[in-house]
Amino acid sequence: MPINPWNIQKVMQERELFFIVSLNRYKSLDYNFVFEMIWKIFSIFAAGIEKGQTEDNMDKAKVLFVTQEITPYLKETHMSLIGRHLPQGIQERGKEIRTFLPRYGSINERRNQLHEVIRLSGMNLIIDDTDHPLIIKVASIQQARMQIYFIDNEDYFHRKFTFHDKNNKFFADNDERTIFYSRGVLETVKKLGWGPDIVHCHGWMTSLVPLYVKKAYRDNPLFTDTKVIISLYDDDFPETLSKDFAAKIKLDGITPKDLKHYKTPTYVSMMKAAIDFSDAVIIGSPSINPELMKYLKESDKPCLGFQPMERYIDAYSSFYDELGVNEPVAVG
Fold this sequence. Notes:
Blueprint: H1 5-25, H2 31-50, H3 55-58, E1 62-67, H4 78-92, E2 96-102, H5 109-112, E3 115-116, E4 124-127, E5 130-133, E6 135-141, E7 146-152, H6 154-157, H7 174-192, E8 198-202, H8 209-216, E9 227-232, H9 245-249, H10 267-277, E10 280-283, H11 290-299, E11 303-304, H12 312-324
Parallel strand pairs: 1-2, 1-8, 2-7, 8-9, 9-10, 10-11
Antiparallel strand pairs: 3-6, 4-5, 6-7
């Protein structure tokens, strides 16, 4: 059986973290030998491309999951269970995946074996005229053969609570945390050079991703043909984000018209904007904000209704396939 270089690449991606750990742990390693082996592996990979051995794998649909909750890193909820099992199920159904989560301060790095990926870290994201370092970390869910990428920043994610402080007060900078997370995911995907066919967003903290993909990143070849799906959940919050939210969101390619919903940045207005800039919508919870449901129906966007846990993965996978053959959403 010929060597499939795409499998080698996948193994290298999955094991990169543990290779780095090994280098740090075993100081006596012969580094010349290590780098010689890396060169040989990449030589096999390149030769395989030239021989046309990678066609089947190159045709795999690529699905990017951007979520605000994944168990076991956060407590078990309906959304965190989907965040954990949906990527695995989609991967097992023959699609290629990448999965992202904020590195909240409540996530224990040692217990969950998070490690920084130096080659992906190091850039700064400017929000409200302030530079914020983007740190990328990874961990593996071994039984699922799946990696999770974590977006990290000391200013935004090192506190021990998720969205509210110990007195249950909504963090004043949740608007900037949302911006940083959404842009951080897309910048990391750019560094990976991995163009997703589908971006599936879960939770209000991912609600800026549709806007950024369709407007700020639309001229990037990695995202030109990308379809975006937003899942709606019962994750409402009553608070209003910063009055300067719209100004902070602004990037090249985003017009004042695109920011109409953010003039009063509530949960409902943010999710209405996410619906506008998404190609399709999935109902992720049995009960959804009634105003959002009304807006969704009026939008006439393709929509997959709520699916029970025993069959939602197959339903989502089929929905991805159907969306992939349709024309992308027009966003003005």
